[in-house]
Amino acid sequence: MRDTFFNWTATATAIAVALSISSAHAQKKYDAGATDTEIKIGQTVPFSGPASAYAAVGKAQAAYMKMINDQGGVNGRKINLIQYDDAYSPPKTVEQVRKLVEADEVLLTFQIIGTAPNAAVLKYLNGKKVPQLFAATGAAKFTDPKAFPWTMGFNPSYFVEGRIYGQYILKEHPNAKIGVLYQNDDLGKDYLNGLKAGLGDKAAKMIVSEISYELTEPTIDSQILKIRDAGADLVFSASTPKQAAQAIKKIAELGWHPVQIVDINANTVSAVLKPAGLEASKGIISVGYVKDPSEAAAAKDDPGMQRYLDFMQKYYPDGDKGSSLSVYGYITAQLMVQVLKQCGDDLTRENVMKQATSLNKVELDLLLPGITVSTSPTDYRVNKQLQMVKFDGEHWQQFGPIMTDEAKD
């Protein structure tokens, strides 16, 4: 009887342990790129080429992932961020992203930088059902869950931002003669269309010049001259850093003093306004949604800012802590980690998208007070809130209320 009892007890214990192990394994679900110890994610970054100013974003993101790994990783797993240089060239982006998916077998792509590079791999990644998360672009096609359910952009909508500028111009400069310099791709065209939507039926009369440029052009001096000669007294630059800096500098060299508006992609102080000249940049208008760490009192009574400054000092000491590019890299990496945390032990591509599309008022360290991140399966837009800013020669100063775009265009 005693032997029978112990045999039964041992058998019951063994069954319980087996069930426990089976249950634990059942709770863990992995797709390519995920294991008990690692999560592989990949991105392309223009470490070289005409948009190399954005390299700072990728460097900040890599540094952030190192910090997370030093802290134990995400749910016990280390993040392996694989970065390749695509020089902001769409054909190279295609080559490198295929390598990430088919050779490196990443779980997802994260923050591929640039509108044209992202557009080049949009259909490929959706066809492979690989998440194209937080793409570094605000073009409308990257927040279209019906057409591209595996793609989410991070940046505020270029169209919405352009519309905000149009509404601002109508209110503050109703008699302006507007000249538009725009990049000849989805970025520039979305901004231009948004501007026209904001101006409404006055657009045709107010816009006196629309001049595009190709990203590969060495200079945009001739475009600026054409805009001036068209009689513009307000210039909207729908561009990226190199061309935005060239435009500001050329306008100053001409002794011309139009009202200037630059888009959010090109309003970084270190990569645009300093090269163009801080004095020449004074008075430029844009929008923002993040804090400015270059202000002397920025960290006072702001734990999020202090965490960022500590991060920069320890993990990215060679980076410019006052640059909006460093800030951008930090908050995008922070949001990526948040999504991975929410995934728990279900690291399938389907669950990654489920978590990314169910963010609920997520607070990031460097978003302006009152701005949070919320998404849904029918609304992929990460950033829907903006505030107008004006450059005073040293810093961007916020003015007006935080504007929330409720429309889904």
UniProtKB/TrEMBL annotation:
The source's domain of life comes to Bacteria
Q: Leucine-binding protein domain spans which residues?
A: 38-392
Question: May I ask which residue range the UniProt record assigns to the signal sequence?
Answer: 1-26
What InterPro entries has UniProt attached to this entry?
A: Leu-bd, Peripla_BP_I
Q: Which UniProt keywords apply?
A: Signal
Keyword flag Signal: yes
CDD domains annotated for this entry?
PBP1_ABC_ligand_binding-like
**Gene3D superfamilies recorded:** 3.40.50.2300
- One Pfam family assigned to this protein is Peripla_BP_6
Family statement drawn from the similarity comment of this UniProt entry:
Belongs to the leucine-binding protein family.
Name the UniProt record assigns to this protein: ABC-type branched-chain amino acid transport system, substrate-binding protein
